[in-house]
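Preliminary data (for renewal application), zinc ion complex.
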Amino acid sequence: MKTLNKAYIIGAGETKYGELWEKSLRELAVEAGLKAVENAGIFSKEIEVLYGSNSLAGTINGQENIGSLISDFSGIAENNIPAIRIEASTASGGAAVRQAYLAVKSGEYDVVMVGGVEKMTDIYGSEIIDLTSSVLDREWEAFLGATPAALAAMSARKYMKDFNVPKEALAMVSVNDHLNASKNSHAQYRNKITLEQALNATPVAEPLNLMDCSPVSDGAAAVIVASEKYVKKNGIEGVEILSSAASQDYLAVHSRKSIYRLDSTVLAAREALGKAKLKLDNISFSEIHDSYSIYGLMELEDLGFAEKGKAKDLVYDEIKLNGRIPVNPSGGLKAKGNPFGATGVGQFVEAYTQLKGKAGERQVKSPVNALLHNMGGTGSTSVVHILGGVA
Amino acid sequence: MGELSRFWRESEHRYRLMGTKCGNCNVTYFPPRDICPKCHRESIGKMKPVQLQGKGEIISFTIVHDSPPRFIRQRPYFMALIKLDEGPTITGQIVDCDADEVDIGKRVRTVFRKIAEEGKSGIIEYGYKFIIDQ
Ligand SMILES: [Zn+2]
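Predicted structure:
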């Protein structure tokens, strides 16, 4: 395939993730956006198009038209640039960066901003479970009492039985996330947890408990994507987006070929690695969408790091920050947090920081390439990006 | 709110467990589909309504403790993925059973029950649940 333009991340910024009672949807978006602009060292008037990524503001905050909201309160309303919201459930962030990548690759734009935001704590109590269940098939899953956690739990139970995987292996995914998050000042949970604590938390949907499930989070993340032309002209050291792939599967788990193989992830990973002409051996670290601990195991397999049922051999040592295949140096969805529309963009913030060698205490040793995996719903959408070496 | 019309629209299929069968490849689907994902345009006009017997086998299950408001009075409750004898897999609750009766591979059959009560409107929603098929 002919490569028209290369696309680079030239700046990134994010808010802290967590229960940020004092901050509104728009304040979060603006904070992350301004950090990214400042980090890139560009002027906001240079931004030619803005993609806002968000999943649930329409129901949680009663606010749609997120593109305009971000554009307006970032102070660029009078630039009159296109500002569009990208929605792909919990994969909105990855999908939005992918749009920015395509916009630059096409040659149409040189500087694109992506801002992901979610403000989930505006809803109290169990109502949030109903709203997050809108990422499922409302009529044939959620209506009958299924929740995202329940569906992950059913994948987990069958997986554990068929491959003789102990619950400990699932818990280790969360233990790793918390350990890495303890070194990330933006993370929602910075406490380390023991295997014992992970195994004995309050049940949510058996066999999954509170420590298997990503939390309800507020947060925003933003990146600036620029063309090769812009990067060269301005002497900027960006991080190249080597490839981008997205794939789709049936919306409901009950319609899929397997309840513990994520075909959208298998396909997106294969395509992204192929387009980047890289193998998993070339990946220095990964950020994966482990919204539930079981997905951490399934994704390691479906991305190609292990045969089906064998990810249990990776989660005790290999995925650690200093292990063979570091996974979620940011703290992942369990501990950094999972503000739906921001989550996928936040993975780019982490990768950019890591590849620039600026991750401090949680710095992966001499990273060259990163794999980012962002997933929508229970696996209906997967978006995979490969980022590579400093330009 | 669109709640009422949305659920009335699907109620016949929920009440009677009506699926569709592709006249081209003979695969049975539930929930019902207008297009067969295997045959695409070859299936247009050939998707026939089919009555499912509601019998099948538990593929996997969970006990839900954290639920949306509509289900709070039923907690904790069993949710399961059930492979119906006609082929499709379906998501539903398992009721009227002891915890040790539910397991992967157990046979179940549908019953018609109250699914939930909408807090604000007071509307009672009905549909299928499953019981252990002794
Ligand atoms: Zn067919």
